[in-house]
Amino acid sequence: MRNGDVSFWYRDIGGLPGKRPALPGDRTADVCIVGAGYTGLWTAYYLKKADPGLDIVILEREFAGFGASGRNGGWLSGGFAWSREKYLSTGSRDGVREMVAAMMGTVEEVIRVCEAEGIDADIVRTDEMRAATSAVQWERIQKDFAAEKAWDVPAEDIHLIGAEEARARINIANVHGAMITRGVARVQPAKLVRGLAGAVERLGVTIYEDTAVTGLEKGLVTTARGTVRAPVIIRATEGFTAGLPGLSRTWLPLNSAQIVTEPLSEALWREIGWNGHEILGDGAHAYCYAQRTREGRIAMGGRGVPYRFGSQTDVNGQTQPETIRQLTEILHRHFPQTKGARIDHAWCGVLGVPRDWCATVGLDPDTGIGWAGGYVGVGVSTSNLSGRTLSDLVLRKDTALTRLPWVNRKVRPWEPEPLRWLGVHTMYRLFHMADRQEARPGAGPSGLARFANALTGR
């Protein structure tokens, strides 16, 4: 089994890419973007489409798609993973509804761009299936469904199915029912980010790789290779933001890891089903996420060991043995049929988590520095909305996107260490304890999870 090598998704396309040239020295630009992941690339794409004359430079420490954009679970969901109520502090109820609708629209927008630019990312339109594997999970999912309906989510977008129908879709052990969300898609993440990088280059954007940013301030980005002076600077570093000077407490880099099986036999797939290629999650507090890949593997992800002290990040995607053990246990619990299947690859990455667990996008008019991130795990679709919004903000357009309640929203920083480490690890330990309690026959909802969420502001 391989561990690391950035992610399995690169192995799937023949290995890690060669790096583009580094910044050759000092230069100027109209817009300098730090980070060549989905956020930075989408921002460059929409800016160039709106104003082809802009001189746009992207600086990347490793290579385009090295971070979460090339390591994620491949969920193009358009999902709203944050508290709607928290966004009411910076917007109205109608504004939050508009943000939800804008998020849902990202799925078709990403597919449209991929078709227009000839990007083959193994995209399959499908449903999201959030399955309950205990009575308590099923009760929680039904409450979540009611909450979605209370926010006027259309009936054609979400519905509940019982155990029999859920099992007919995907034969998950002990399934009690599921919530189905329509209009999502499965993607191959590395194919998407590499294709997008090629598309922005064809538009005239310059991507410098192997160029580590060491500082940014009004009008100036400093790197180990030289400086870039630009009136607009976009920080598109998401889970790696804590590594920039002065930003160690802005967004917490939360670990997320995955394993992938060998290609399963046709006999196994007949037992499991999954013919609709749904993106799959469960109703646990320490939840998992999964997809059936193009070549018939199961990619299973979850948090594992959630956070490294001091906001440290992994080395080339290598994850801990304990994380691999936990993910394999989840895989076998949901799909006992796979116990004889080989695990081919394991890897991890980081996602950005703000103190209130709600994503933001913005541009400071005084400094010209913009940002987007804090996606909390739904960055494949959210980054597209970020890119379109940042493009409008940079071009000083007053649009429906620039008026959404996540724009220019200020969030307090995370606590210093060791409080940060203690808080996150305590939260996930309590989540795991709550899941074990709720799995017992006749158990009710555990209060431990509520305490964990209150502890960390989740």
UniProtKB/TrEMBL annotation:
<dbReference type="Pfam" id="PF01266">
    <property type="entry name" value="DAO"/>
</dbReference>
<dbReference type="GO" id="GO:0016491">
    <property type="term" value="F:oxidoreductase activity"/>
</dbReference>
<keyword id="KW-0560">Oxidoreductase</keyword>
<dbReference type="InterPro" id="IPR036188">
    <property type="entry name" value="FAD/NAD-bd_sf"/>
</dbReference>
<dbReference type="GO" id="GO:0005737">
    <property type="term" value="C:cytoplasm"/>
</dbReference>
<dbReference type="InterPro" id="IPR006076">
    <property type="entry name" value="FAD-dep_OxRdtase"/>
</dbReference>
<feature type="domain" description="FAD dependent oxidoreductase">
    <location>
        <begin position="30"/>
        <end position="393"/>
    </location>
</feature>
<protein>
    <submittedName>
        <fullName>Glycine/D-amino acid oxidase-like deaminating enzyme</fullName>
    </submittedName>
</protein>
